[in-house]
Amino acid sequence: VTYKNARRAPEVVAVTPLDRILVETAQRQSDELTNTGMDIVEKMSEYAVNNYNMDITIRNLAENVFFMNQSYISHLFAEKKGISFSAFLRMIRICHAKEFLADARWSVTDVALMSGYNDTSQFIRIFRQETGMTPKKYRIFLKNGGSENESRES
Fold first, then answer.
1. What is the pLDDT of residue 38?
2. Contact between residue 153 and residue 132 where contact means Cβ atoms under 8 Å apart
3. Residues sharing a CB contact under 8 Å with residue 86, sequence separation 6 or more, in sequence order
4. For residue 5, is pLDDT > 60?
5. CA 107 to CA 123: how far, in whole Å?
6. CB count, 10 Å around CB of 141?
7. Residue 12 burial (C-beta neighbours within 10 Å; 0-12, 13-18, 19+)
8. Is 116 helix (H, G, I), strand (E, B) or coil?
9. Is there a contact between 12 and 3 (Cβ–Cβ < 8 Å)?
């Protein structure tokens, strides 16, 4: 094995068949690490989608589900998805909350709990930040025939 241009990261040139096998194995392992990162992100996403109504924190996921460093999986998720895990979870919860609000049988408190929020005030505040209206106004908006495309107030 020889190295070209020693000042930068060395570019490995395989000279013998054994060298080629070693280089290919190293490249495959590097690709697998990249894929593993994406696998972790996909599993985190799937976990959020399936458990949005539970008390989920990145710390809990890191310590009890993935057994990895909290900072690492947080950074990995944001890097691969382009959005933080908490923002992703919030998006999922608000999407479900909108569906629940379409059913008048559920109170706003019920909708908050079913969407993963234990604090109704926090739910109302976050819902308003994400949609531009309170859950009650959103429900009225739906009742009056409003569509999802019109739900975001300017």
1. 83
2. yes
3. 58
4. no
5. 13
6. 18
7. middle
8. coil
9. yes
More confident residue, 2 or 47: 47
Report the candidate in 65, 38, 69, 40 with the shortest Cα–Cα distance to residue 54.
65
Extract long-range pairs of 22-28: CB within 8 Å, 24+ residues apart: none
CA pair distance 116, 92, nearest whole angstrom: 10
Residues in CB range of 60: below 8 A, 6 or more apart:
none
Q: Give the tens place of pLDDT for each residue, 105-135.
A: 999 999 999 999 999 999 999 999 999 999 9
Q: Where are the alpha helices (DSSP H) in 2-52?
A: 17-51
Per-residue pLDDT tens for 56-68?
Answer: 999 999 999 889 9
Instruction: Yes or no: say if 89 and 54 are a contact pair by the CB < 8 Å rule.
Output: no
